[in-house]
Amino acid sequence: MTTSDASQVTSRRVAPRSSTRSRGRDPSTMVWALRIAVILLVLAAWQATAASVGADLLPTVQSVVVDGIPPLVTEGYAVEFGHTLGRMMIGFVIACTIALPAGALMGASKVWNDVLTPYAYGIYMAPRPALLPLLILTFGVGATFGFVMVLLFAVFFPLINTAKGASEVVNGPLYEMARSLQISRIRVLLFVLIPGSLPYVLAGIRLGLGMAFNGILLAELWTAYSTGGLLEAMVSYGQLPEYFALAGLIGLTAVASYSLLGVFERRVRRHRGMAVTGSFGEAS
Amino acid sequence: MSAMGSVATRLASGRLWRIAAAIVVFFIAWELYGRTGRALAVPPFTEVASELRAVLASGELVGPTLGTAAVALLGFLIAGVLGSVLGLLIGLSSTFRQVVGPWVNAAYATPMTMFIPIIGMYFGLGMGSQVFLVVTFCIFSVLMNTAEGVQAVPTQYFELARTIGISKPAAVLRIVIPFALPYAFVGLRISVASAFAGAITAELLLATDDLGLMMMTASGNFQFVKLAALTFYVALLGFVAVGLVYALERWVAGRLRPSS
């Protein structure tokens, strides 16, 4: 999370882009060459380390590709990860269903902001993994435990970003104008509040989804269930090529969803004429 | 405005009362739900508070608290130093940013929890693996916020530095770092919560030890009240840690503010 993602957490504003140094242009051929060189360097370092420490500790790149990737399909590991993703998405939708209206309420009303702020920051500041032993006793091993973990991990960012977005709109000139023109509440909600806070909401969803991945994996590692159980078993039984292939699939899925949401968010920001607070290293 | 003045203003505006009321409502709801006996793992708050008092008085929390805090602090410091230096480099050099930035973003989006099994294998089931996990939990907030802070330095500052003949390293030291420091502190504040989360995760899932071990033991012995008390205690530690970094941030900001 950066300062521009959740300004309420950070309580700081990023200076207008025009007055700061150039954030990024379209990457040149040189930059692309360097990026590819970084990948090659990492792969070469991996290969050299694997050759020196042995396959029992680190499989070679070929071994991960040849021995690790096919079992994702033949042994059904990818399907199992799909089930994990499904459970994660249910938990995440529950989190958003709570976070978005509550965040809008916090942003639109000072009273609700005061009432809900302790809960929002309480969830964030308390080490949530500490709840694992209590939650397992309360919800047992199974899907509900996963939903609750995802909810606890993912709810903060959509909540606090929505609150920030709604607050910006409510304190902005457009909202003031809509009120003075006595436009109905529904129309204000549909045409002012939701579009105005959308970029913040999307940033919250993007960050929350990243936390949801951590939440579901932690739950499944704790209970040795589904994908988490597979990851533990693979390391325990020395199936390292399979472990790295499955970890790669999980990582790629998380990065792809994060990046896609980031692209969508930047488009919305551009469309609304807002400063593009894209991740560094990307053309913006 | 002084801290006391700020509190007085918030009291007068009713803000502090509402926040306090929300917290009181939480504890009352906890107490009432606990008394229904529907969930064994959620005992009434009064029982949890009295158990926590007893555990604190017995002194059995001192060693584990120091152990967990040491893991969290060490990981936090390593992540703080590495994150700040990398963030500074990324913020200063556009080529470095464009080359390394996408990989940093990818690493940030990758769920680090999936590496828990392999971290144990590589770093052993001891403090090394615990600290490593804490570093992976913390480093990105510091790194990304520092980079954001460096990039937010207005171009005019650099032009002015060039005009008055300040060298590049001196400009970094006297302009960039003071400007980016508040951003880095925001990253540190976010990271300190992650550090405790990482330490507890490591003690529960990697190398069972200290507060994690106490929680596991209470859970295994079905000591629900003690487990709830320990969980509450760990949450309080998280609040205290964030509060300490916040206080440090305000102190540093006060020192850096130019005197009028």
Automatic annotation (TrEMBL), chain A:
SUPFAM superfamilies: MetI-like (SSF161098)
One Pfam family in the UniProt entry: BPD_transp_1
Transmembrane segments: 30-49, 89-109, 130-160, 180-202, 209-231, 243-264
Positions of the ABC transmembrane type-1 domain: 81-262
Keyword Repeat among UniProt keywords: no
Cellular localization per UniProt: Cell membrane
CDD domains: TM_PBP2
Membrane topology: Multi-pass membrane protein
Mitochondrion listed as a keyword: no
InterPro entries tied to this protein: MetI-like, MetI-like_sf
Main location as per UniProt: membrane
Protein family: Belongs to the binding-protein-dependent transport system permease family.
Full protein name: ABC transporter permease
Protein source organism: Nocardioides bigeumensis
